[in-house]
Fold LTD domain-containing protein.
Amino acid sequence: MPQRHTRVRFVTLLATSALAVGGSVSLAAAPAAHAASTSVLISAVYGGGGNSGAPYQNDYIELYNTSSSTVDLSNWTLTYYSAAGNSGGTTTLTGKSIAAGGHFLIQEAAGSGTAAALPTPDATGTINMSASNGSVVLRNDAATVDTIGFGAVTSSYVEGTAAPAMSNTTADSRTTGCTDTDSNGTDFVNADPNPLNSTAALGVCGTTGNTPPPPTGTPSSIEEIQGTGFQSPLVGEQVKDVTGIVTAKNGSAGFWIESATPDNDPRTSEGLYVYGGAGSVQVGDAVTVAGKVSEYRPGGVDNGNMTTTELGSPNIQVTSTGNALPAPIVIGSKGHVPPAQVVEAGDPGNVETAGLTLDPTTSALDFWESLEGMRIQENNAKAVGPTETSYGETPIVPANTKHVTWTPDGGVLYKNYDTPNAMRLILSDALLPANSIAPANTGDTYQGATVGVLDYNFGNYYLMATQAGALQRGSTTRDVAKPAKKKQAAVATFNVENLAPTDPQTKFDRLAGQIVTNLAAPDVVALEEIQDNNGATDDGTVDSTQTTDKLIAAIKAAGGPSYQAVWINPVNDQDGGQPGGNIRSVFIYRSDRGMTFVNKPGGTSTNSVAVTGKGKWASINYSPGRIDPTNTAWDDSRKPLVGEFLWWGKPLFIVANHFDSKGGDDPLMGRYQPPQRSSEVQRHAQATLVRGFVDQLLKANKHANIVVLGDLNDFNFSETANIVKGHGKTAMTDLIDTLPANERYTYDYEGNSQVLDQILLSGALTKKFDYQVVHTNSQFYDQDSDHDPQLVKLAVH
């Protein structure tokens, strides 16, 4: 029963594997050998309670006493194990007994649906059983009394052969007479759920099972179910006689089938996901399936994700086994090249309701939709972003991909809104045993064939691998900047991704190493995402002294200089980010090379910095200060931090930013086309306020030395960046634009190398500078932050 229809992150076991993705599982010891039970038996089990189509709300286990005497169950327990042998909970029967020839009903956990209540149970527990595969062990003290293993059990918790797999609508019940031969496959049959408690007739036990009625519905093929559009033309209909070969299993949750007799229409997929019944099939089985057609949208009904077509509540007949699998479609081969830079032509809005007919030759969204659920293959797949190790997911493209802009390290550049690089797939290891696919850095290659089924999840199409190529490392290495010259002021920006004192010391040490070695110990570093003293604990703490002290100590221990930190504590829970974390921007600076911080007390979380004086005396009233912090543009977002510094006595104004995130925008590969970027409205307002402050400084002193930097959470070609840049004689220079086009990236999101972080300079500082994005994180699976830092070395006049 735990395997509800989630697919939020894919179910992580192959039916043939006893290893869980993410690490090996320690299997419990095998049950002790025992003779056939002569007293109390497990007479029935049911794990589909509360699932779709279930007749009862709860799972249950039923016992039967074959002896002629009452049995005291005070020291007896029932333990459930998953198919792989992991314990799923125990129910104790303390104080209970079972009469001679009597039944005993144990009610277990309820599902999320609504169905009939069980008869009054004789005992209750909280076990969530699988609807299809698993084991139940009955013990008296430590001694095993009886065991049933059902479905695709890979553990030793089974007697002889396994009992049949169950479903939402079927239980496993002992055959008539409740004999025990110590072979579950002999002793149990599928039957309609018929829970019996202690009030049931004595001495009557077992069933001949049930013969499922012939399936009903309209005879259909996979191609007819998939149709030529984004959703099935048969949604909500009952279909039958759907034939295919089982190509992959999603643990016990479901499986994919593919037609052995494909049609000639490139718009109709030959693959289909069947939700449920995975315990009754194996890869290579030829099956005939009946069920109800539906569309599944990951994340709920109200988001921008696409749906996948599936067949639910299936009636499955295996017609043969050991069949060869359909040959995979080789992505990148002739006739199977995804359009790289076109998601969906025109302005269709919701593609699922726009009445569109798929055109795989011109639209990437159509191309992938036409292959949904099918076996595909990429040869020498190239990693265009690092592996997200917590999920085992890596963005990839075929090695022969064309019509994209490659970065020097082998990533794909996201250079404007018209180039979404839609040939990307997310390679997932969720159907493979743990550690089957080595984690990759950007530019690495999986040599040979990577094969799997095509699925969709959270805004991306996924290659759910059943076979992966061997990893070959590319040439990507972490950048190391040269130290600043004596008269160069070195200024950097670095988003350190929710840094808190509760993080392991290794994160502080590695970040310190980046600052000291890779950034060459800048004079000023604007840090974004510094959390408060207890991190995400939401108890009203807002000060971050412990966080910055710990980082500064780590920098010193790494051989760096002595830094000092300045910031303004936010109002509790008002600046967005991780709840309770109170992230803020912080300046750390060193004063041993000519940099001085001009401390002007009075700046608080709610009052605003202002420009004072004119000409060479132009200054600010608070240092550090915040820009218009009570303006609604900063609601649930970080407020810019302004600091006045002196470089060998010359004023230098630095504005550290962390604009509102892009959360809530439509995914590039979503149902709304073109994607709507709703989050940029707030960033435009924030950019306008920052630009307004810059204009005030330049009005007071047109030669003011101003650096605006940080995580603007928007692209260098965006309107957000253009607002901050400004126009005419007072325009600022966005330094990312001074790099060669294919080097303009600070971040990698799902295989798109892109800009989120910027450094902008006022005109007085643009005469001579040395600028670099220091790629230390975004391209590496073992990153310390998801952002790359940037460094500029300035001549301050």
